[in-house]
Amino acid sequence: MKKVLRIGIAVICMACLIVGYYTYLSRRNATAKADENVELSEVQTIISKNFKNDYPATPRAVVKWYNRIISAYYAEDYDQAQLEKMADQARALMDDELLKYNPRDTYIASLNLEIQDYKNRKRTIVSATVSDSKEVQYKTVNGYECAFVSTYYFMREGSTYDRTYEDFCLRKDKNGNWKILTWRLSSEDKVNGY
C-alpha cells in the first residue's frame, strides 16, 4: 500500500512539474512575441541608431538621416534627455570643423530656443526631399573630397504651407565617412525638379 501511495505522489509531482514548465514556456513565448511586435517611435529609432558601426554610406544618406533628426525635433514628443541624445546623433553626422564652431552646450541651448520658436509659431516640417543621386555634385576643394546635396523642405506654419531649400556641403573625413561641413538656405528649385 505504501508503495502505491509513493508512486501516486511521484506521478502527481511529475504532472505538476510538466504543467508548470509548459505554463512557463507559454508565457515566455507570449512575452517574446509581444516584444517583437512593439515598434520603436521615431525618437527611439533615431536614438538607437549606431553611427559608429553603421554610418550612412553616401552623402544623400547622411543628409536623409539629418533630416529625420531635425523633423523629429519639431514634430515628435520627447523629454530633454531624449532631445540631447538626438542632438548627439545629429552632431555625429557633422564634420569636426563644424563641431569646433558649435560646442555641444551651445548647440543644445540654441536648439532648445529654435524648437520653442517652432512650437510657438505652430511650425513643423511636413516632408524633406533630398536630391537624387545623379544630382549630387562631387568636387575636390582645398585637397578635400566634398559633395554638394540639395534638400527641399515642405513646411507648415499654422494653416499655411511653404517651401524651403537648403544646400549641404559634406566633406569626407579620414575614415572615409561623409560629414556635414556646412549648409545654407537656397532660393533655387533644384531638388527633383520642384
Structure description:
The chain has 194 residues and is of the alpha+beta class. Helices cover 49% and strands 25% of the residues. The chain has helices at residues 2-37, 42-48, 59-75, 80-92, 96-101, 104-120; strands spanning 123-130, 137-141, 144-157, 160-172, 178-186. Strands 1, 2, 3, 4 and 5 form a five-stranded antiparallel beta sheet that branches. It is elongated.
End-to-end distance, in Å? Answer: 92 Å
Overall pLDDT confidence: 86
The count of DSSP E runs of length 2 or more, i.e. the number of strands, is 5
Structural class: alpha+beta
Oligomer: single chain
DSSP helix fraction = 40-55%
Shape: elongated
Radius of gyration: 26 Å
SSE ordering:
HHHHHHEEEEE
Beta-sheet strand percentage?
25-35%
Low-confidence stretches: 190-194
Largest sheet: 5 strands, antiparallel
Number of helices: 6
How would you summarize this macromolecular structure in one to three sentences?
With 194 residues, the protein is α+β, with helices and mostly antiparallel strands. Helices cover 49% and strands 25% of the residues. It has helices at 2-37, 42-48, 59-75, 80-92, 96-101, 104-120, and strands spanning 123-130, 137-141, 144-157, 160-172, 178-186.
Task: Please name the defining characteristics of this protein.
five-stranded antiparallel beta sheet; single chain; 49% helix; alpha+beta; 194 residues; elongated
